[in-house]
Amino acid sequence: MKRTMNKIGLVGVAAAALMFAFGNTAEALKMDGNNITLRMGSGHPDFLTYTKFMKTQFAPDVVKRVAAETKYKLKFQQHYFGKVVKVFDTLEGVQDGRLDIGGWCVCFDDDKAMAMNLGYYVPFGEPDAVKALKSFRRVVDEFPAIQQDYEKRYKQKLIALSGFNNYGLLTKFDWTKFEQLKGKKILAAGPNLPWVKGAIPVRTTIPKAAQQLQTGVGAGIVLFPDTDFKLKLHQATKGGTYTVTDFGAVTQISLTMGLKVRKKLPKEVVKIIDEVARVYETKSLIAAQNDHDWGIDKLKGAGIKIRTIAPAAKVAWANRLKNWPGERAAAVSKKKGINMGRIMKAYIKYQKELGHKFPVDYPVK
Predict the structure, then answer these.
(1) Domains in the chain: how many in total?
(2) Per the domain annotation, does 153 fall within a domain?
């Protein structure tokens, strides 16, 4: 009996600790008269471009407009670096109320946010982040089924899109031909693991990448030049080569807001949040695109050899991935009950209309 009581006591202490850490997780929103407090955050650190703009542009602009245009005063409690949610469970954190608004990469929810990983399923896409946003935003607006699970299953609304810039390859070794990747361990985030053809794909996350490179778990990483530099991955590789592979700028960040919170907030406040979110969408991706050249310059200054992938190597790589987009479209259609083939063909079409040329034609039914 005593042992049982001790166990019960420990469970109680643990539960109390969780309540202290997160507050009432089913009700992060706080309203006291005209004063509103919203909890916002991400599993990523706040110096990545999309999180930096959540903190320095989205939040202050919402606060300013709410104060100027309504009778309410709003403030944000902001949590990054995995303090409230991790990169793998931000969607769940918005769903269960740990956050009212969350920013997260769909690459870490490649099952739950399966359809929204569209950009990953079409490799060597548009390398300019702003143009990539235009094509993806058009798809999301014209084919709402692509993000239907957000509201129907996970009780949150997509309020903004964002992302990084053109994916490239940082490696400990130098290479110029596709065949030279054979046997090398290359890190990638998840839905882009299949990009790693010819080499050995190894799944990673931003918090783990440096250690994996230092310990030999990976000899290279598919990522962005600015993020490589900010995370000091060039130090983890002890030099090496950054190759501009033009895998593409994937619009992979979702900014989502809990549906319960939206219902409880005054309509004029929700309207302001939605409007500022769309401004955030454009501004954050303009900055993300600018960060690409900044990252290249920083890596070069740190002694990293900068290359652009040879056209023959790009075509060889793309040919190894030629049937994969169609396979992913079929898999998403089957699991999510949507016409992903139609959506993917529209996405490819819209990118071509903006001037992008794919190295191969992807057959999609």
Answers:
(1) 2
(2) yes
Q: Locate all alpha helices (DSSP H) within 206-339, ordered by sequence.
A: 206-214, 225-230, 233-236, 259-264, 267-301, 311-320, 324-336
Residue 244 is encoded by which pair of tokens? Answer: 């501009």
Asked, for residue 354, whether it belongs to a domain, the answer is: no
Q: Which two tokens stand for residue 260?
A: 């319960």
Residue 79 lies in a domain: yes
Give the whole-angstrom CA distance, residue 105 versus residue 217: 23
Provide the residue range defining the domain that includes 32: 23-163+252-291
Q: What is the pTM of this model?
A: 0.90
pLDDT tens, residue order, the chain (365 aa): 444 444 444 434 443 344 334 444 456 899 999 999 999 999 999 999 999 999 999 999 999 999 999 999 999 999 999 999 999 999 999 999 999 999 999 998 888 999 999 999 999 999 999 999 999 999 999 999 999 999 999 999 999 999 999 999 999 999 999 999 999 999 998 899 999 999 999 999 878 999 999 999 999 999 999 999 999 999 999 999 999 999 999 999 999 999 999 999 999 999 999 999 999 999 999 999 999 999 999 999 999 999 999 999 999 999 999 999 999 999 999 999 999 999 999 999 999 999 999 999 999 99
- CATH number for 156: 3.40.190.170
How far apart are the C-alpha atoms of 92 and 194, rounded to whole Å? 25
For CA atoms 142, 145, 147, 148, the dihedral sign is positive
- Alpha carbon of 357 to those of 82, 113, 134, 166: distances in Å? 38, 27, 16, 15
